[in-house]
């Protein structure tokens, strides 16, 4: 089973709708992240959380909110979706890999289209 | 503001040759730099990390260099294979990671 899972994998919605993207992890990591990916722009950080009680805004948090329900769960919400939020969204955890290397583990992504 | 550039959007090379990808950055002092591989429709997968006090790191056919004076990292894949075709992302880290836009590598048989 995948260490980081995201649901849904694909979503088409309309302008003004509220959308929630969910992320679960079995890595046991405290640190979790939400990114969006747009062609030519790379991954941009939306929100991050260092533990259940710690939530921080990233580079592009406007129009988004998050909830850290447990160590293993980190949800991203679009309160009122708009077309320029159409993108590929990734959840990630961060922890030490073998050999002590600090790394991020990404989920498979959610492709969101806002019409 | 911080800026990360990767040499080109796309790079085509012949199988067996060495692929060299470049990551340049400005207005940033990373503690370390990472390279990730991303296949279409999937999340990035970590490949290598190099710290600011390291010059070179190797892993199998992969080699990364890091020059903090030039603010540049080079990522090499030797004896490239068609299976190496993917998008490669560099990421600079301190508290959080900042990602470059990626280079799409195509290894032609």
Report on the structure:
The complex is a heterodimer of chains A (115) and B (109). Helices cover 0% and strands 61% of the residues of chain A. Chain A contains no helices and 11 strands. In chain A, strands 2, 4, 5, 6, 9, 10 and 11 form a 7-stranded mixed sheet that branches. Chain A has a 4-stranded antiparallel sheet with strand order 1-3-8-7, with no helix packed on it. In chain A, 31% of the residues are buried. Chain B has strands at residues 3-6, 10-14, 19-26, 32-38, 45-51, 56-59, 62-67, 72-77, 86-93, 97-99, 103-108. With 109 residues, chain B is mainly beta. Chain B is globular. Helix content of chain B is 0%, strand content 59%. In chain B, strand 6 (56-59) and strand 7 (62-67) form a beta hairpin. Classes of the chains: A mainly beta (115), B mainly beta (109). The interface between A and B is medium-sized, with 23 and 21 residues.
């Amino acid at each position: 089973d995948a260490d980081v899972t995201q649901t849904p994998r694909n979503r088409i919605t309309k302008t003004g709708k509220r959308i929630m993207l969910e992320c679960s992890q079995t890595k046991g990591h405290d640190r979790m992240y939400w990114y969006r990916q747009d062609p030519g722009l790379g991954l941009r950080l939306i929100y991050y959380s260092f533990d259940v009680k710690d939530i921080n805004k990233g580079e592009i948090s406007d129009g988004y909110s998050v909830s850290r329900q447990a160590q293993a769960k980190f949800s991203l919400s679009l309160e009122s979706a708009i077309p320029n939020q159409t993108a590929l969204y990734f959840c990630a955890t961060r922890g030490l890999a073998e050999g002590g290397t600090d790394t991020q583990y990404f989920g498979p992504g959610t492709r969101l289209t806002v019409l | 503001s911080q800026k990360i550039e990767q040499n080109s959007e796309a790079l085509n090379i012949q199988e067996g040759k060495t692929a060299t990808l470049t990551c340049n950055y400005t207005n940033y002092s990373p503690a370390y730099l990472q390279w990730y591989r991303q296949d279409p429709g999937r999340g990035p997968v970590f490949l290598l990390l190099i710290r600011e006090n390291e010059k070179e790191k190797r892993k199998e056919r992969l080699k990364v260099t890091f020059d903090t004076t030039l603010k540049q990292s080079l990522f090499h894949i030797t004896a490239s294979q068609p299976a190496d075709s993917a998008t490669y992302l560099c990421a600079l880290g301190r508290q959080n990671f900042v990602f470059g836009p990626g280079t799409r590598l195509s290894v032609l048989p």
